[in-house]
Amino acid sequence: MDQLISTIILSPTCRIKRLLSVISPITLAQPYLFIIFASPSDNAPTLKQIVSSYLILDRSTRKKLKSLYVFLNGIVSWKMANKIRWINTLLELTNHVQINQISIPPKVYKFNLRLEPTIKVPSSRRIQTTVFETDLDILIGTNGHQGLLVVLLDSTSCMRQTGLNSEGIFNRPPSSTTLRIFREAYDRGHPVNPTTVSLYKTCLI
């Protein structure tokens, strides 16, 4: 998991066995780490659910867990206390993992804004060129040989999936906070999942 951090977003109705079937190819292959965005969440797991889920894992899988990062105070596991590292902000998280490989939910970004105004990725992990307010020739090349921007690919993909039959999708401006969150995420090189917000917000990013 040092080479690639996998992000898995599951619906509240998804059961623990489904989760284990998804992550088992990762956990069986090599040592891994978990990052839990413990708060804010409308469907946060209880301490009992987390401990029960952990006990379902076989011994070899449990031993391969290198670290458990917990973003914001929310859970405690006395059996894994030596592996838990409490993370208070996303900026602090950047010092431990390749944060620009993680798709972070907008709710986490919004809560993080209460704690710190910006997220500064370490220079060694920062992308060379920002997306916004940068000349297109620099971003895609003089003749466009470097391909379309990720922000355009993400937005058009979302519109093709859910917006072809919707009217007025460009007539509702997103909130300044949402726009700022997505803009800064793309500038840092973060993967962004536009489907986590409404179609109207996606179209105007």
From TrEMBL:
Domain of life, per lineage: Eukaryota
GO cellular component, one term: cytoplasm
Residues making up the signal peptide according to the UniProt record: none
GO molecular function, one term: GTPase activator activity
GO biological process: small GTPase-mediated signal transduction
Protein name, as recorded: Expressed protein
